[in-house]
From TrEMBL, chain A:
Belongs to the binding-protein-dependent transport system permease family. Keywords: Cell membrane, Membrane, Transmembrane, Transmembrane helix, Transport. One of its GO terms (molecular function) is dipeptide transmembrane transporter activity. Its main location: membrane. GO terms for cellular component: plasma membrane. The chain crosses the membrane at residues 9-30, 101-122, 134-156, 202-219, 259-279, 306-329. This is Peptide/nickel transport system permease protein. Residues 95-326 form the ABC transmembrane type-1 domain. It is found in: Cell membrane. InterPro entries: BPD_transp_1_N, MetI-like, MetI-like_sf. It comes from Nocardioides soli. It is a multi-pass membrane protein.
From TrEMBL, chain B:
InterPro entries: BP-dependent_transpt_permease, MetI-like, MetI-like_sf. This is Peptide/nickel transport system permease protein. GO terms for cellular component: plasma membrane. It is found in: Cell membrane. The keyword Cell membrane applies. PROSITE patterns: ABC_TM1. Keywords: Cell membrane, Membrane, Transmembrane, Transmembrane helix, Transport.
Automatic annotation (TrEMBL), chain C:
It is a peripheral membrane protein. Belongs to the ABC transporter superfamily. This is ABC-type dipeptide/oligopeptide/nickel transport system ATPase component. It comes from Nocardioides soli. It comes from the Bacteria. One of its GO terms (cellular component) is plasma membrane. It holds the Pfam family ABC_tran. GO terms for molecular function: ATP binding; ATP hydrolysis activity. SUPFAM superfamilies: P-loop containing nucleoside triphosphate hydrolases. The keyword Cell membrane applies.
Amino acid sequence: MLRYVLRRLLISAVTVIGLVLVTFLVVRVLPGDSAAARLGPEASQADIETLRTQLGLDDPLPRQLLDYSTGLLHGDMGPAVSTGRPVSDELLDRLPATIELAVAGLVIALLLGFPLGLLAAARPGRPSDALARLFAVLGSSMAPIWLGLLLIFGLYSTWQLFPGPVGRLPIGTPPPPEVTGLYVVDSLLAGDFALAGQSMQFLFLPALTLGLGASAAVLKMVRSAVLQTADSGFVRTARAYGVPGREVLLRDQLRNAMLQVLTAIGLVFGFLLGGNIIVERLFNWPGMGRVAYDALGSNDLGLLQGYALIIGTLYILLNLVVDLVYGLIDPRVRLGGSSS
Amino acid sequence: MSSTTFPARVEALRRRKSLVVGVVIIGVLVVLGAIGPFLLADPSERVADPFLSPSASHWFGTDSYGRDVFSRCVNAIWLDLAIGVSVAVLAMVIGSAIGVVAGYLGGIVDDVIMRAVDILMAFPGFVLAMILLVSLGESLPKLAIALAIAQVAPFVRLVRSKVLSERELDYVAAARVSGARWPRVAFRHLLPNSIRPAAVQLTLVCGYSILNVAGLAYLGVGIHPPTAEWGVMVAEGAANMLTGQWWTAFFPGLMIAVTVMALHFIGDDLGGDRQ
Amino acid sequence: MTRLAVENLRVEVPGRATILDDVSFDIAPGEIVGLVGESGSGKSMTSLAVMGILPRGVVQTAGRILVDGTDVTSVARRSVAHRFAMIFQNPRDSLNPLMRVGDQVARMVSLHQGKERRAARAAAVDLLEQVRIVEPAQAARKYPHQLSGGMCQRVMIAMALACRPQLLLADEPTTALDVTVQAQILDLVVALTEEIQCSVLLVTHDLGVVAETCDRVNVLNQGRLVETGETHDVLSNPTHEYTRYLLDSARELEVGP
């Protein structure tokens, strides 16, 4: 187990270093000139040159990379050209909002996708399976922006069931005292149940937009992982010995399929973190995606670079956690020493 | 093939419902996209009052400039399909080539390539495409390249694992013994045999790309107004959705959903998922 | 009196292939009967059909399977499982990799003997001892991947015993094991089934195994029974050319190339 953990840690560290390198190369080496882009088409050559020098863009590349990496080690991603504030502050301030949305999306994706996937796998080829798979195809065919618009149109404009796309709380409502930055959690901690309910109402539509698409992916993964175990020897044994079908499905098939499903959940969460930029704009959700959208508008490549780096790092960390949990669940990894 | 009778082929197709449905939808779209522009109103001109709701004369209504939404949707078919197909083919060609090299050479080359793939996969595809597009500068070919690079990683993995299992087979050994050099063996023999799983991914990526173009358009990058493109139209119509003119964004979004769904159906069938 | 009678069994992949055609044989209480054939002859499918666990897409299209005179193709299969048990070719793959082997045996004890959890656990340890696993209490806490193939097959036999079976279906039970372990497992199967008067259907490609253990033998070729009779008669005086071919290939193996 220790060797396994160390190996995972090492791989993650290497991947993070690679990530830094790639974001650096994409932003600094590709033909686009971030100084020219920042100043727009009317800027004079002299202005561009000045800004280039200010940003350190005229230094030799290895020098730039060294400066950038040393900065990163101190949590410094440089200043955001468009706002003047440090890139890390701009983004990390908004991290809790993004996490709250992504986690809520994941919960919805799991609540929908997991039982449907299991239902589909329990009777492959039957109508229940066909319906579940149709749901999966529909869910993954809708553009998130369009799905979000439909939900807003139906559940807000037409039926007024949920609040409109104005952010995390009604305009003018003060947020709960900050502990975690997650409004639902913080208002519960403060004992303010009304505020918690309000936060959840505002959270629901954007989370549903994200979660519906992701639930299709969860459904497909659960179905195929469970179906794969259906042909395995231990399921044949359980059936031969008269273990009831439902127990075989839950205790033998699902438990073994969980190892694969867990990996899939890591992937889906990554998708939720990255897909949020559209949903955050649509619902005026003040998260990192919203910052990235503003950075797009003002051509702030440094801020975008920081966004990509943080999303990528979160994703790697998440997969590290998934791998470690996997190690805890699977006795073959936890105890090692396979005898052959 | 020639010995199969016609009724037998019809019977075989009847069992592959999802393939038939998918191909028919795409076929209808292609034909509509080919003849529509000659029959319908100019997609970029004002043809009626703004915000007319769907009616017999304007099936999908008109948008804020009084343009015919149906005509714009039909005119966008070929553009969207072309983007989807070119991104998918581009990603497949690049990804498969890298995958074959990694799987066939193995060792350090394989390690380095697979690490790089892991790093690529650490970005959600959409974010990667967005960053690349902004860095490369915007144009239609660059959009296709950015979207393709974001989808290369799964192709590399797929083809590499297929190559790893196939390289032990007899025909590769035979080719090697006969003195062929590795690039020849790799590309002439392995590639054609490793391409089938990639074909499934091809249809999926084609769909993702159409979805991603729509997402990027909403963020204001990639394709811009006044181009008649589904994603651009959804983005333009987004504000109207809140004020009640749902049709301006609804129909182009529906076109996207139907197209991507048809691609999924075809992919499901190619993946051997027949029910 | 027969324990199991298979009559005119026909198994097909509808529209594609016939796997078993008109297969009939029977087994008396306490008898050990061999079912021999090469791979692809349909011998494993026969045992799966008797057990009622044919793979998806494969169906029994004709024939009857009688247990103590009752046709079980029409009744709920679970009532059969209470009287039958089965062990397989790859013992480690046949065990759930995420459950301790003791728990897997205990699960069968509570399922088939109605014991509650703690009693089932204790019974499981006793069963592991019966299949001659040393330090059974410790072995019960292991996962399949920590045990050798032979040990896993012993665990499978313990699970079979937990069902108190009247018929044991053994599908190539020793093929995947080391030669030295093979004999031990066979001896164990013979001894334990004799003790509880359990019949055995031994499915194998190995005529040596048949000669050592079986009272009677059936030879299966391409889904059809080609020869049947007392083991000694069939092996010393084969009437069908396929049986002779099997015997010849077995002898070649013994002499070595």
